Amino acid sequence: MKINRSGSAVWSGGLKDGKGAISTQSGALDAHPYGFAMRFEGVPGSNPEELIAAAHASCFTMALSLILGEAGLTAEKMETNAVVTLEQQDGGFAITASRLNLKATIPGAEEAQFQELAAKAKANCPVSKLLNAEISLDAELLN
Predict the structure, then answer these.
(1) Nearest CA to 106 among 84, 82, 85, 78?
(2) Are 78 and 140 in contact (CB under 8 A)?
(3) What residues contact 11, with CB distance under 8 A and at least 6 apart?
(4) What domains does the chain contain, in order, with CATH numbers?
(5) Longest C-alpha distance within the chain, in Å?
(6) pLDDT digits (tens, 9 = 90+) for 28-48
(7) pLDDT at 44
(8) 8 Å CB contact between 111 and 77
(9) d(CA 46, CA 28)
(10) Which SUPFAM superfamilies match (predicted)?
């Protein structure tokens, strides 16, 4: 099976004074604004790194749901936050890390099994496989 999804960006102007808009195939984002100040100066608005963080958090959580099901477990609730790090390096910027923070309530799960299954999801979710960055995981079982 092969699935294609798309997103697009439009940009007008220079790097610092220009303005852009991000759209997704689904319409979840439709000409959503982004720009230099939103990415590098903390001005509210979207940027590529937060979109990658949302993609990583959602992909990881879905992968863990699958892996839990294979182990005969079902999560009551899982909340994942991802923090993507953009760093200036020689010759420009690079995304160097994604830190996944998971808090999960999974009836019947034991701590060691939970940590093993969460690590498996971290390693095998498609977005983790895409990122050429250090990926860390802090998983907390709340049962």
Answers:
(1) 78
(2) no
(3) 18, 19, 20
(4) 7-41 (no CATH), 48-141 (3.30.300.20)
(5) 55
(6) 999 999 999 988 898 888 899
(7) 86
(8) no
(9) 13
(10) OsmC-like (SSF82784)
pLDDT at site 128: 94
| C-alpha span between 79 and 41 (Å, rounded) | 28
Q: What is the pLDDT of residues 82-106, one digit of tens each?
A: 999 999 998 899 999 999 999 999 9
Terminal alpha carbon distance of the chain: 37
Q: What average pLDDT does the structure give for the chain?
A: 94
The Cα–Cα gap between 35 and 18 comes to: 7
**What is the CA angle 116-142-112, rounded to 5?**
25
Q: What is the CA radius of gyration of the chain?
A: 18
Return d(Cα 8, Cα 36) in angstroms, integer: 17
Average pLDDT score over residue span 47-74: 96
48 token code pair: 């590529």
Give me the residues paired with residue 89 across strands.
Answer: 92
